[in-house]
Amino acid sequence: MDIKLLRAFVTLAQQGRYHSAAEILCLTQPALTKQIQTLEHLAGITLFQRGRQGAKLTVAGRQLCFRACALLQQYDEFREYMRKVQNGSAGRLALGFGISSFQLAPAQVTAFRGLFPHVEVYLNDIPSDVQCRMLLDGQLQAGFIRLPAPEPLKVEVLMEERLVLVIPPELSADPANLRAILESHQLLQITAHRGHGLVVQTACFLRENKLNARAVSVADDIQTLLALVAAGNGVALLPAGVSHILPAGLKLMQVEGEYARWLIGIAWNPDIQDVLRDSFVKIVTAAAEP
After folding, report:
1. Other beta carbons within 10 Å of 66
2. Taking every annotated instance into account, which residue ranges of this chain make up the domain HTH lysR-type (predicted)?
3. Whole-angstrom distance between the N-terminal and C-terminal Cα of the chain?
4. pLDDT tens, 107-133?
5. Residue 281's domain is classified under what CATH number?
């Protein structure tokens, strides 16, 4: 059913005269009459009683008019919401981030919400490789990820991240002790399916710097890994961003060498048109400029 027929019906019901209703709708009276007749034909009932006093709703017409008014209001609200989504002032923004952007991502969400208060923003902790797949599939609009990213994703570099060794309080954080600590303590790692990029980074770091370690995958999340280190189960090579959630007593040892550093950036799929996402990316990249 054409929404124009319902609008003609409601307008005529409100005005009570064809002349007045036709003017509001920018129609001729014959055109308005034809629309009302078409609606009556589709409904199979008479909607108006016509006479010298104009057009008066029948009993059936009054029953339908209330619902028609509600439907038109919903339709108008939908069109207004669609307009806001199109121009990027409303809608939903789905974002991903990780431990390396633990402070950066929420701060940028706060800045974005200040400018776009009617947008619903969802920020979830998701591994970088999973974020990339979600970006390609259109399930995620933008993500703070470990670089590089696969094509055709587009990225902007935001910061540099580095590896640190998380150790219990009784150990010295002197980098000169790195080899000895790794040889005498288990190296606790996050599982590959939850932190593929970090597992690969750690393996490359150990290999290229000729370090031996008894690596054991013990947890699906970094918080559990930190708790195990705090309980004396071993040590862990993690991104420096872990400092924001470090349990009391644990120490961070900075490490140097090949594969000790990598880049973090924001990524998005340029093949998907998204005004809302573009506004967010613009805010993030502007904040990252020196």
Report:
1. 11
2. 1-58
3. 56
4. 999 999 999 998 999 999 999 999 999
5. 3.40.190.10
